[in-house]
Amino acid sequence: MATIMNSQLCVQLFVAISMFSLCNAAVTKLWVTYNTETSIFEVSDQQATDYVAVASFVNTVNQTGWAKLDVTTQAGPKRKYNDSVQAYAAGFVEGHITKSLMTMHWANTGAWVCPEPLTSQCIQIKKFLESNLKWVLENIKTFSTTSPFWHHVRLFLEQTAGLQDGFAGMKGQLNLNIDVMSV
């Protein structure tokens, strides 16, 4: 009976400590603004009224095994920015705010697969991915204005380019320049 009570007490203590850790987890919030004159995206930790995207991030990986990321854009009928600007901005802010986790993920799961200099297998993989991306970009150029499918593929790639640029700390500028082998 005492062992069961001790086990229950341990579980309750674990839950209480976990909840305390969650309550004390730091929330990071970033806003992305877009300068329509220069076509440049900027990230700031200062609340912006005219923003394209805002991200809220809580890193509770050490407490729960998970982190929480919320990214929101200014959508709806009265939106100021088009789909492409919103998609890129969402990726851009995500790349900035989750850089540390993406770096750890790459170190744990991907860095050993294709280290520099690239092996012949990795060169083949890179060529295949670049060829596939070229095909996708050609279809986007041809069909994205007439096909909802290719429009959304374009948005996905714009968000991915934003993610890559945000992670790298590059200047935010709408593009489809994906490096298939970048970290």
From TrEMBL:
EC number: 3.1.1.-
UniProt GO BP: phospholipid catabolic process
GO cellular component, one term: extracellular region
Source species: Plakobranchus ocellatus
Alphabetically ordered keywords of this record: Glycoprotein, Hydrolase, Lipid degradation, Lipid metabolism, Signal
Function: Putative phospholipase.
GO MF terms held by the record: phospholipase activity
Protein name: Phospholipase B-like
Gene3D superfamilies: Phospholipase B-like, domain 1 (2.10.70.60), Phospholipase B-like, domain 2 (1.10.439.20)
Entry annotated with the keyword Glycoprotein: yes
Pfam families: Phospholip_B
Signal sequence annotation: 1-25
InterPro entries: PLipase_B-like, PLipase_B-like_dom1, PLipase_B-like_dom2
UniProt record similarity statement: Belongs to the phospholipase B-like family.
